[in-house]
Amino acid sequence: MPVTDVTTDTENLTLTITAEFAAPVDRVWQVYADPRQLERVWGPPEYPATFVEHDFTPGGRATYYMTSPEGEKFGGWWEFTAVDATSSFSFRDGFADADLIPDDSSPVAENRYTFSAIDGGTRAVYSSSFGSADDLQKVLDMGVIEGASSAIDQIDALVAA
Question: Which of 149, 121, 145 is CA-nearest to residue 14?
Answer without folding.
Answer: 145
